[in-house]
Amino acid sequence: MITFELDTPYIELIKLLKITHVAASGAEAKALVEAGAVSRDGRPESRKRAKIVKGERVTARGTTIEVV
């Protein structure tokens, strides 16, 4: 599990995947979301620019990111 400390009100999903190195690039992050390989709090997330806030968990490629 990766813990990501959020210092803004939210972060876009593809930016979170890139900054935590779950995806190597923005294009790769977009492809993961488009392929349905990303979940948010246990539910599939298909919006590339979904606003992720504190307290949420994002899972992709077997890695869970906890936003605190």
Q: How would you characterize the overall build of this protein?
A:
Helix 1 packs across helix 2 (26-34). This protein has 68 residues and is α+β, with helices and mostly antiparallel strands. The chain is built from two helices and seven strands; from the N terminus they run E-E-H-H-E-E-E-E-E. It has helices at 13-19, 26-34, and strands spanning 2-4, 11-12, 38-40, 43-44, 51-52, 57-60, 63-67. The two termini are 12 Å apart. It has one domain (2-67): RNA-binding S4 domain (Structural Genomics Hypothetical 15.5 Kd Protein In mrcA-pckA Intergenic Region, Chain A, Roll), CATH 3.10.290.
In CATH, the topology is named Structural Genomics Hypothetical 15.5 Kd Protein In mrcA-pckA Intergenic Region, Chain A
Q: Assign the CATH superfamily.
A: RNA-binding S4 domain
Poorly predicted regions: none
Number of separate helices:
2
CATH architecture: Roll
Rounded radius of gyration (Å): 10 Å
Number of domains: 1
How many individual β-strands? 7
Q: Describe the biggest sheet?
A: 5 strands, mixed
What is the global morphology?
globular
Q: Order of SSEs, N→C?
A: EEHHEEEEE
Q: What is the end-to-end distance?
A: 12 Å
Helix content class: 10-25%
By secondary-structure content and strand pairing, the structural class works out as alpha+beta
Give the integer mean of the pLDDT values: 98
State the CATH class.
Answer: Alpha Beta
Order of strands across the main sheet: 1-7-6-3-4
Q: How much beta, percentage-wise?
A: 25-35%
